[in-house]
Amino acid sequence: MARLLPSIFPLCFHYIIVLSFVATVIHSSTLDSDIQALRSLRHAIDPTSISPTSFLSSWDFMVDPCGSTGEQFLGILCSNPLDNVSSRIIAIDLDGVEYDGFLTPSIGNLSELTILNLSKNKFRRTIPGTISNLKKLTTLSLADNYLTGTIPDEITLLKNLERLDISGNRISGSVPVNISGLRSLNYLSLSGNALTGTIPDLTGLWQLKTLDLSANQFYGYLPNLPVRLTTLSLNHNILSGHISPVKKLKNLVRLDVSDNRFSGLISDDILSLPRLVYLNISNNRFDGIETFKISGRETQLQVLDAENNQFHGRLPTKLVTIQNLTQINFAHNQFSGPIPREYGERLERSWRILYLDNNFLSGHLPPEFITHTRRVRGSLSRNCLRCPTIIPLCRGGQRPFSECLRQTNGSK
Length: 412
Known about the structure:
Blueprint: H1 5-28, H2 32-43, E1 76-78, E2 89-93, E3 100-102, E4 115-117, E5 122-124, E6 139-141, E7 163-165, E8 172-173, E9 187-189, E10 194-197, E11 210-212, E12 217-220, E13 231-233, E14 238-241, E15 254-256, E16 261-266, H3 268-271, E17 278-280, E18 285-289, E19 303-305, E20 312-313, E21 327-329, E22 334-337, H4 341-349, E23 353-355, E24 360-364, H5 368-371, E25 377-379, E26 384-386, H6 401-410
């Protein structure tokens, strides 16, 4: 019997090592509730929408999600705990290949999640209220899906959110008033939905750089806005009143309020915002543009699109002092009188796009409009100008004499 001990001992020692290794693997594997949440998400997707080369086709639950290597569980990131505790799912970033399914409520079990990106797919139904459990979430992107219902109030509990994008869905209702409590937000896009109501006071979002509420059904006046905004898109709504709150946004680079019902005056405080490069105020009811205080050295404005408003009187001459301006669109307004000679000088030097069609401008063209227009894109058609059709900008013809006479008599 004693002779057998030496041979049994190494075998026992071998099993101890194996069991120790297995125990280590079990301790370092993904938390079971996280695995079940991933299974639930996977099962909520129509299998016929999962192509062989997509991320979800690599989700093989025969292996551990956080212990997998190579081409398994693509789109998943895990924590790397130092102690003998289970790994957690910290990011889901799926490829946008039109997965067709819904966002299961079990997503709320992934309490360590910091990034959830399901953009550019076909997720349907509503955003589950259990999303409020994702307290560590910094990025929530559900853009370009088929989500319906309203923006759940539970989203306003995600205090660490820095980026919220639910654009391009079918979400209705109003914006939760408490959304201004998400003080870490620097990017907010709710565009391309069926949201309605007034825009709530968002000044509490003091770190917000980008705000996109375009292509909805917001109405009412413009509220005060976060002062650090660099991009503001409010186009394609039914907003009205003045846009005076915008003049406080000294960091604004891009402003689009087109296709609304804004009215009144575009003040030089807006035109001379120090960092503004792009300004689109087209398809509104503005009736005046103020340029008294404009100094070209104080603004970076390159693009001014003011098509289809109710501007009248003479073309604003002082626009030529804006040194960086290269594109102007004043088409479909009621400007009258001659084209300023200064416009010709800027056309010769730096203007590359100039649309003045469908106004009531009259008289001869500045000579530069004849000699330099082949390198300029635009139109002077449907005015009352002496505009030879051999000049490219004049193609399309002018208004009948009777329309011009009626406009002249009406303006007296």
